[in-house]
Amino acid sequence: MQNNDNIKPQDDQPKTDNSVQQSNVAVQNNDALNNSAINQAAQVGNEVKDQVSNLGEQGAKQVANLGKAGADQVQNLGKEGMKQVGNLGKAGADQVQNLGKEGMKQVGGMMSAFTQPLSAEFKQQQPPVTKDEKVYATLAYVPLVAFLSIIVKPDSAYVRLHARQGILISILFFFTGIFAAIVSLFGFIGALLAFLIGLIPLACMIIGIYSMYLALTGIWWKIPVLSSIAEVIPVEWMAKTSKENITGQAGVAKVDYDNRSDVIKAEKAETTPTVPVAPATPEAPTDANQPDQSAVKK
Fold it and tell me: How confident is the model at residue 15 (pLDDT cuts 50, 70, 90)?
């Protein structure tokens, strides 16, 4: 008996060959398509790479040009800035030099104002003053004594001049000293400020001693800067008010003075010797007073 399993149908073999050929053709077509796609992708990639490379070179050139232009602008601005800084520095140096010259002139003027009263020529040009005026003008630079000076010598222009300056120096001395003591309580900065402010009372003390010497020698001494400020101090009003408070009210003092004047006038009238007066001679009768002669004859 023949085995039926080993017997193959004759019609199936050609079909198998056709499918193999078709699959081979499909594979070849796929390979061709893949190769074509790969080639196209490679070409596109190369083109993109070239474009990117070109753009990168152009961008690098533009950046380089911009950088160079910016560097030139920065350099030019730096040169202009240096010129302006140099001009400003020169102008500032000139201003500082001018201010220094003006400051030196002012300092020289103040020094000459302090030293000029000591010259013999300046002393000879001073108006004469009495010894009492010199004493009270000197005492005017002692704190609180200036009021006594203007009370005793209210009519002396010499005493009033020194009294104004003495009062101003006393005010500066006390108030700056108190302010420096308060500021010194605020730490290191306060102590530093207190030291600087404390130089003002020291200067007031030195100027006051120097002014006392000049007042005692009869110099009409005007302290630079301070004398113009001291002119606003109403020493006449202070003297009048202080004198009224010491001696009494102004109205009472005036009444007493008027009463005293009347008493003095009465005393003078009583003590004045009287001069005898000759009797008056009778006047001759006038025509109107004479009697009628015709009536007398009758």
Answer: low
Buried b (16+ CB within 10 A) or exposed e, 276-289: eeeeeeeeeeeeee
The answer to whether the beta carbons of residues 215 and 140 sit under 8 Å apart is yes
With a cut of 50, say whether residue 140 has pLDDT above it. yes
| 3-class SS string, 8-72 | CCCCHHHHHHHHHHHHHHHHHHHHHHHHHHHHHHHHHHHHHHHHHHHHHHHHHHHHHHHHHHHHH
Q: What's the pLDDT tens digit per position in 200-231? A: 999 999 999 999 999 999 999 889 888 888 88
Closest CA to 142 of 180, 178, 173: 173
pLDDT at 4: 52
161 close to 220: Cβ distance less than 8 angstroms? yes
**DSSP code for 277:** -
Domain boundaries, the chain: 24-109, 120-250
Beta-carbon count within 10 A of 275 CB: 5
Q: What is the pTM of this model?
A: 0.48
pLDDT at position 286, please?
Answer: 44
Task: Give me the amino acid identity at 25.
Answer: V
- Measured between alpha carbons, how far apart are the two ends of the chain, in Å? 247
Residue 130 DSSP code: -
Crossing angle of helices 235-247/250-271, nearest 10°?
70
197 in Cβ contact with 183 (< 8 Å):
yes
Place of tokens 């900065």: 189
State the helix-helix crossing angle for 157-183 and 131-139, rounded to 10 degrees: 10
What's the pLDDT tens digit per position in 144-154? 788 888 888 88
CA–CA distance, 117 with 161 (Å, rounded to integer)? 15
Stretch 253-278: mean pLDDT: 43
